[in-house]
Amino acid sequence: MRTPSPGRLRVLDEGGVDAARELGALRARGLPLDARKPPWLRVGVPGGERYARVRETLRGMNLHTVCQEARCPNVAECWGGGTATVMLMGDTCTRGCRFCHVKSSGHPPALDPEEPRHVADAVRGLGLDYVVVTSVDRDDLADGGAAHFAEAIARLKAIPRLLVEVLTPDFQGDREAVRTVGRAGPDVFANNLETVRRLTPVVRDARAGYDQTLAVLASMKEDFPRIVTKSSLMVGLGETEAELSEAMADLRSVGTEILTLGQYLRPSAWHLPVVEYASPERFRAYAEAGRALGFRYVASGPLVRSSYRAGELFLRGEIEGRREQPGS
Fold it and tell me: Which residues are registered as beta bridge partners of 229?
């Protein structure tokens, strides 16, 4: 896998953070790459008839999934339950975040114009009633891939009773690109904050931003109030509990309704080290704190990821209820 060169970290002005200093502090505090993981982070080997069916269907249509590209630990559970998160716009990202295992390049291949149709065909063939669609970042495209997303959503929404969740790039904060996705009518719109304000310049690519993500979530909620908004945070990168609480409060302040929190796991030696493994009890406390802030649903646990299927039943009931309201 090609990974971007760490290069020389810039001093960013978002919150006055010295990125190089923060990176040094994380490395000094980080656990060794071969440190033994606690028992609650051990998962089974993927397998089973339903898992194989999902894998072969997606592979046969040349589709990528974040389940595989990002080495998600829940692939056995989700695929075994008939759920997969499809990744649009290829498998090569134009950004180089220091937590993500998806390969990176400044010159990814051209978009496949047939990809939205292939995604819809795959979902229809699998008989799913809830699908999550995400993508790599494509800063090389004028609209960041928003129109490609919109076409995929439109094709998926043509499938009766299918609920569509999208986890999109931030489109560099372009509000019209966000509106393009919103006009296509996804049931859930997710954009991930990923980490606390102080660590953002170290954890995420320089083209991402803490306030930029909040602005994207805010604009979706303002322009399309009936679309459920969602975001995700990683734990274990050296954030304090006060900083995590602030991040959750910031997400609520822009109307975010669904929150997921999970343990950061280091994909390779190039990526940021894990500073600590949070216990299941700590994650339960985070869930309680999130609910106290007013999130409609919080999925919080060591193996929870942004597209984790634990929230599907809640979201299905929530969205169906909104459809039945007058004026929906």
Answer: 189
Say what percent of the chain tops pLDDT 70.
Answer: 74
Q: Given this model, what pLDDT does residue 309 score?
A: 56
Nearest to 191 by CA among 163, 164, 222, 212: 212
Nearest Cα to 72, choosing from 5, 29, 126, 134?
A: 134
Average pLDDT rounded to a whole number, residues 55-64: 59
Strands 85-88 and 64-65: antiparallel
Kindly give the pairing relationship between strand 258-263 and strand 297-300: parallel
Position with higher pLDDT, 151 vs 5:
151
Tokens of 31: 């656990």
